[in-house]
Design goal:
With 267 residues, this protein is α+β, with helices and mostly antiparallel strands. The chain is 20% helix and 25% strand.
Amino acid sequence: MAEAVPPPFDRPDAGFNQLAGWTWVGCYGGYYLQADLLEGFEHGFFTRQWQGRIPEVLVGYLSAGVTVHRPQQVHGALVLPASAAALEPWPEADGLVSDAAAQSLWVCGADCTPVLLADPRSGRVAACHAGWRGVASRILPAAVAQLEAAGSRAADLRVALGPAVSGECYQVRREVSEQVALSLAPEPIAAALEVLQACGALLNDPQPGHDRLDIRAAAQAQLLLGGIPAEQIATCPLCTVTETELFHSWRRDQVKAVQWSGIVAQG
């Protein structure tokens, strides 16, 4: 039996265990995060406590009697119907959209943003792995477009952006910033970079030719441009690089280890 409780980590910073808009769920297996905005949908952003447990195991902590769907992630922007990712070998893609009830959709990451989308009207859901390449290639608008094609409306969607590398910890080359900027606004590149900076995604870096990039802020800007209201987008403030007890981080450790995030389709 799961219950909403704070994780047992010895943290000096006040408020860590009380993230506004987010709830820690504890069970005999460990702790995972839920976005309050996705209330009514079985979902979870899991931590490094769950290392070694795959979605076929993790799904049991969220729901019973559902199927597992996950892609072989390649840092791209392809979004597939969940039924196309039901068996091994998992298809190469970085996003899934439900096309039946009782499907659990999973993505993993270790600095890239796990994004869970839900439509309270239809029960449809989507899950995306959104690193800078995925955001630059507009994976989230692609997922929204597929949900809309199935009958959802962007204005009804609720979206949760899970733990990922923060802008302060994510140094990138200027060419990377430019590619992400062009996903928000057309050329000229100077104007696109201004848009990226205005949404809080482009931060200064002391090294010439580099920036600090808040990829979650850029992802949120795309969602806003796509017609999803700001109050229906939740962004987790936790950084995978700095939260060493909670999350794996490729940028910090250079070790191939991930945490999983999943959501279950309704109706």
